[in-house]
Amino acid sequence: MKMLSAESIYIHIPFCKTKCPYCDFASWANKENLIERYFQALYSEINHKCTAYLNFLKLIPQSTKISNLKTIFIGGGTPSLIHPDYYSKLFEEIKKYFNLDDHCEITMEANPGTVTEDFMKSYKNLGVNRISIGAQSFNDDILKILGRKHSVKDTIDAINIVKSAGILNINLDLIFSVPGMTKTCWSETINEALKHEPKHISAYSLIIEPNTPFETIYSNPKTLPDGDFAFELYSVLCQALNNHGFRHYEISNFAKSGYESVHNLTYWLQKEYFAFGTGAHRYLNGLRTCNIRNLEDYIENPTQEIITEYPSDHNFEKIMLSSRLDNGFDIELLRNISQKSDFYIENILNEMSKEGLLEFSDEKISLTEKGMFLNNEILLKLL
Ligand code: SF4
Q1: What is the pLDDT of residues 290-340, one digit of tens each?
Q2: In terms of Cα–Cα distance, which of 296, 38, 255, 3 is closest to 130?
Q3: Residue 1: which pLDDT band, with cuts at 50, 70 and 90?
Q4: Predicted TM-score of the model (pTM)
Q5: Residue nearest to atom 8 of ligand 1 (CA)
Q6: Measured over all CA atoms, what is the biggest interatomic distance in the chain, rounded to whole angstroms?
Q7: Per-residue pLDDT reduced to its tens digit, 346-381
Q8: Rounded to the nearest 5°, which phi and psi values hold at 339?
Q9: Do strands 247-250 and 253-255 pair parallel, antiparallel, or not at all (unpaired)?
Q10: Cβ < 6 Å from ligand 1: which residues?
């Protein structure tokens, strides 16, 4: 029988002050009246499932823990909107079933305009030691285009509050390829972000998701920056962060040495993890499942799970995920699962290497900066 080997938990907090027009996450505005019931459902899900996991492990509840946690990630949504008392109880529930590693990375996502000194100090006292701030841009015009309700000043205030609460392990989320964004304005955002000495930066190109207001607003692709310009912006980012000593360890993620996100590496290294909350996805015992995404339905039925993937996709997924990392992926694994012949693969790898898209040896393939940007196209050709 397989055992649960997961050492990470993701907790989803779906409440936001307002809904951003590009966002397709499981998050809702104006549902604060459901916070109390949501957390009761969350505690109930944790209790119900963790008891089942313990039974599965054939251990005795109350006397043995499921695993030793290396990471907890409280994401959303906007977790920084929520009163610390809810998290106090949440950690109580988690600690009933899990040991927390001495160096457990506990991340909470926070949005500018919702961060207060009192809450932040309490989060820190509860054990939160890493804050990921949804800065998105340090240009007020770009924030308006994105439909964000916060200002640059709100972001700077939030960073200062987090630091004064004693949490220095800060990630800043940024978005590029926003309509109207120039190279200069993107450089200014990067430089301003760097001034605040974050340990980690995540930067994503704006994607127009189906069923969002942006899908209607930007239905004409000509109103969006094209791929070449997006790559120019990506290069500006990579160069600036490289010059400032960040390791570009994943397509969209850059860290000072030792501050790579342990939690997110769990996903990219295809390790298993627990997850709780509405729409939360988990990977346990070789199976990927997710919770009900609708908030009210989740509150009514927090333990229901839907299977999202069968284990046969495992190796394909391994390449998809590890190709995102600077360490790359095994060439042997590619040969084993690709539909293409070894001869074709050898030729296409040589061709892509000449084009500066990847580097490869007898064992590994790793994508260059340009290759990372074109990751999907490259994998399509290889697989
Ligand atoms: S704050 Fe984040 S999660 Fe909430 S609506 Fe905006 S992008 Fe989505």
Answers
A1: 999 999 999 999 999 998 866 557 888 899 999 999 999 999 999 988 888
A2: 255
A3: very low
A4: 0.95
A5: 23
A6: 62
A7: 999 999 999 999 999 889 999 999 999 999 999 999
A8: -75, -15
A9: antiparallel
A10: 16, 19-20, 23, 25, 27, 76-78, 111, 134
Residues 154-195: pLDDT tens digits? Answer: 999 999 999 999 999 999 999 999 999 999 999 999 999 999
The number of beta carbons lying within 10 Å of the beta carbon of residue 344 is 13
Band (221; pLDDT cuts 50, 70, 90): confident
In the DSSP assignment, the letter for residue 324 is T
Euclidean distance between CA atoms 292 and 312, whole angstroms: 24
Residue 290 bridge partners (DSSP): 281, 306
- Closest Cα to atom 2, ligand 1: which residue? 77
Helices (H), the chain: 35-56, 84-97, 117-126, 140-145, 152-164, 183-195, 213-217, 227-243, 262-268, 295-300, 314-322, 331-337, 342-354, 369-373, 375-382
For residue 223, give the amino acid letter. Answer: T
Return the number of other C-beta atoms located less than 10 Å from residue 376's C-beta.
9
Q: What is the CATH number of domain 323-383?
A: 1.10.10
Atom in ligand 1 nearest the alpha carbon of residue 18: 5
Half-sphere exposure in the Cβ direction for 107 (13 Å, CA): 24
Cα 367–chain centre separation? 21
CA-closest candidate to residue 90, choices 56, 50, 135:
50
Give the Å distance between the CA of 332 and the centre of ligand 1. 40
CATH architecture of 8-268: Alpha-Beta Barrel (3.20)
111 Cα to the center of ligand 1, angstroms: 8
* Domain chopping of the chain, boundaries: 8-268, 323-383
Beta bridge partners of 106: 72
Q: Is residue 40 within 8 Å of residue 86, measured between CB atoms? A: no
Dihedral angle, C-alpha 80, 170, 202, 82, nearest 10 °: -10
